[in-house]
Amino acid sequence: MQFLCTASALTGTVPIPASKSHTIRALAIAGMAAGDSVLEAPLVSADTLAARQGIAALGAAVEVRADSWHVSGCNGWPQPARTQIDTGNSGTTMRVLMGLCSLLRDGEIVLTGDEQVQRRPAGPLAAALAELGAHVTALRGNGCPPFRVRGRLRGGRTSLEAATSQYVTSLLLACPLATGDSVIEVTHLNERPYVDMTLAWLADQGIRVEHDDCRLFRIPGRQEYRRFKRRIPADFSSASFFLAAGALPGNNVTCRGLDMTDPQADRAVVEYLQQMGADVNLNEGEIRVRAASLRGVELDLNATPDALPVMAVLGCFAVGCTRLRNVAHARLKETDRIAVMARELRQLGADIEEREDGLVIRESRLRGTAVRGHADHRVVMALALAGLSSSGQTAIDTAEACTVTFPDFAALMRRIGGRLREQPDSAAPTAGCADLPH
């Protein structure tokens, strides 16, 4: 599917869907808990459905109701209903399930995913789980999925470099259920707020974890997760595209449902917009962003790599130079987002320079053309935002990738005035796009 975008004035209020990161953590804990848990207003997307199916495959019972998921947990004893779990495009689900599958008492399970997930490394996590007693094998010998996993996690001591916070989150979720105590040394940690989010869930569960500023974790084993009922918070990562939209010329957008006290990493996007000079108004449960003259800034995105695509687009509309740095791990996402955003924004006319750890963007006049979304949900949505603020028409392929985290993205953009159409890839190209490079 393609998105076809033309310049639009974006004005109005958008309800922000639930957080993918919170939903997957909630599923993992509910699935391993004793008793019945309720997730209210969870995110329903390809990634979270993959996580839900994965938790069910480990022996939890999941009942879907109107606006909630009811999970009957397996009390820390996964008993797989099948020998293979496909996590689709969800790297988070893959890595979280690697930890939970290491709790198996009997049998083994193969974890696989789509083509993108099978290119995403998890070797350091596999090695750490092995040091803690599990048996984890990369079936292609390259440190990437598919993995064969069997237990049993017994605890011990391990050390790892966390190019992605998901390695640490996986260990933090699994180790409290190990048969013994665990000590985890983290020699380098990217995306720390996502670990803080996991720790907040564990604290709410009464799970005991000691740590030295996230460098050394001590986790007693033989703990238990307990049932809970909780509403899933709105997603700042999804909101970032609408918050950024409000800052662009002629726009005025309000995002509803966001909580600035939530530990989500991408709430920092609000601060980034303020640094760039956007008119940001914070109210209880709502954030309004109005157009202003944006200025180039230097941003350290180590904690917020998912914000790189949308901040790269904003940099094109800021006076001067915008530098996005310390985010080399953005190359390890669904795509190499540094290279991809440089390539596609340059196609739209951006003055953009790729660096090893980020991007340098100068104010540019963007012109619509055909660009590639690379089947990466955040790349597709960022390019759509660029297209809605460019002259002419922008065509973005693989737009169906939005279903990974934000199925309602296009509908909500149209709700606030976005001239965004969805067109099957097999349809004849729209006039003006037929001979454009692709």
Structural class: alpha/beta
CATH superfamily of the largest domain: Enolpyruvate transferase domain
Q: What is the total number of structural domains?
A: 2
Q: Indicate the radius of gyration in whole angstroms.
A: 22 Å
The N- to C-terminal Cα distance equals 14 Å
Number of strands: 24
Percent helix, as a range, is: 25-40%
CATH topology of the largest domain: UDP-n-acetylglucosamine1-carboxyvinyl-transferase, Chain
Strand content: 15-25%
Main sheet properties: 4 strands, mixed
Low-confidence regions:
427-438
- Form type: globular
* Mean pLDDT across residues: 95
> Regarding CATH, which class of the largest domain?
Alpha Beta
CATH architecture assignment name of the largest domain:
Alpha-beta prism
Tags for this model:
438 residues, four-stranded mixed sheet, alpha/beta, single chain, UDP-n-acetylglucosamine1-carboxyvinyl-transferase, Chain
Give your account of this protein's structure.
The chain is α/β, with parallel strands linked by helices and 438 residues long. The protein contains 12 helices and 24 strands. The chain has helices at residues 20-32, 46-57, 91-101, 123-131, 165-174, 192-205, 236-247, 268-275, 308-315, 337-347, 377-387, 409-415, and strands at 2-6, 11-15, 36-40, 61-65, 68-72, 84-86, 109-112, 135-138, 147-150, 156-162, 182-189, 210-211, 216-219, 229-231, 252-256, 279-283, 286-290, 298-300, 321-325, 351-355, 358-362, 370-371, 393-396, 419-423. Helix 3 links the parallel strand 6 and strand 7 (109-112). Residues 427-438 have low confidence and may be disordered.
